[in-house]
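pipeline stage [seq->struct] | target=Sensor histidine kinase TctE | organism=Pseudomonas syringae pv. actinidiae ICMP 19096 | residues=35
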Amino acid sequence: MINDSLRWRLLWNLALLLVMLMLASGMSAYWNGRE
């Protein structure tokens, strides 16, 4: 059970990191397109 919770927490961290990277790339592209 503990292993499952740890695995889920790791998956959530990876998902959050992916979302943050996508947001950062999107924002940079948005700012570059504006100029």
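stage status: PASS
auto-comment: The helical segments are 2-34. The CA atoms of residues 27 and 33 lie 10 Å apart.
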